[in-house]
């Protein structure tokens, strides 16, 4: 077995770690944690010789004593992460103001109490961010919950229903707050970082999307009905590594960003915008974490119900219209029968188009139409469902600090499926097999043969997307190609 040797400094001493090429990320982290004499509750950070933070993973480059890494224990737990000076100053000024008011009024006014709660809430949010990779940190946690930290042991664990109701209360309490112009503008770009937002806040931002596109006015949607609809959609996404509510939010946010970047508001009617945005929102409802190939091979209820024809996508559509059939959630209830049929038909086409088995069919049809694309031609407009496809697989168009954690989540879901396939004696999906797939290899072919051809064709229709999505995807291909090449070279040099 090929062995990799890593040299690093920790607590003023030089250490050396050895692990095999097939070692898991968790095992590598355990090696560093043991060297730092740190427990699972500690947060660690590792730097290369140039002072940049690097990922702790089996692909970490081997080095010598002269080019050793620096390993640092950042904090003993999430609650001990140092708050910024600005936040400390804010809290001190609030305490000072409270004492002054107390002197004069003999009691703490309600608005002071509210301010204190907001500061405490913000501090807790900074202390319990769900994903720390954007800060270059890592912390040990359950492998089954790649993007979630374990609940605080000091508080009782809430049931799923209680957690959802807590999210609903937060959402409704924040929904009347004014979202800053800076956030609104950032929401329109692929640069948006989903990892820094809680679920309730994402619901608020989804509300902003519908509001800023003027969809409430155009379709006579009551705000309360929209809020009920968004919350019900949230409740129908499962707690799985990748195809969860955060993924739904990311796809919808990218769809929203593309609408603004390509100025679709001037090219398409409000009905088409409603179809695309709502399709993105509903495109993976009640995803079980196992793809269509598994559904068909395992002969699941979904595969039997839909005769092996896009079982998941058909199910997502059915769940979406089940939610829309509830009067309190029906954002389409004030439309005519004809408008409803048109929107329903458009959403079904958009969601079914996200089945990757139809990728080449849809892309080739778009290639034929693209040179003479006409936004007034209904057949051509229907191909705008390709925008939902692009949004669905757009993670690599985002900054690497946002995109790479999503790849980790996707691989976790893939590996869960291949493990189950092996246990049940089903055909193992090759690109999901943890014994054959590496992080870089999983991406290079996908970017080269799926993303780039699709994004290139869309950029021909919308040249402004060159810098927003095509260039970042090219950089991602270069990043993972370099990672894959380095891994292969290392394996060659370490062969006996």
How would you portray this structure in words?
- The protein is mostly helical and 496 residues long.
- 55% of the residues lie in helices and 6% in strands.
- It is built from 20 helices and four strands.
- It has helices at 25-35, 85-105, 110-127, 160-174, 181-186, 199-212, 215-218, 223-235, 245-261, 270-282, 292-297, 301-305, 311-324, 337-352, 359-369, 378-382, 385-392, 400-424, 439-461, 465-493; strands at residues 3-10, 13-20, 43-47, 69-75.
- A four-stranded mixed beta sheet has the order 2-1-4-3, with helices on one face.
- Helix 19 runs antiparallel to helix 20 (465-493).
- The longest helix is centred in the last third of the chain and has 29 residues, at 465-493.
Features:
496 residues; mainly alpha; globular
Instruction: State the end-to-end distance.
Output: 9 Å
> Taking Cα atoms only, what radius of gyration do you get, to the nearest Å?
25 Å
Q: How many DSSP H or I helices?
A: 20
> What is the helix content?
55-70%
Number of strands: 4
The main pleated sheet reads as:
4 strands, mixed
**Poorly predicted segments:** 77-84, 127-155
**Overall pLDDT metric:** 85
- Give the strand content: 5-15%
- SSE order, as H and E? EEHEEHHHHHHHHHHHHHHHHHHH
Helix/sheet category? mainly alpha
Strand order of the largest sheet: 2-1-4-3
Shape: globular
Catalytic activity: 3',5'-cyclic GMP + H2O = GMP + H(+)
Pathway: Purine metabolism; 3',5'-cyclic GMP degradation; GMP from 3',5'-cyclic GMP: step 1/1
Protein name: Phosphodiesterase
Active site: 243
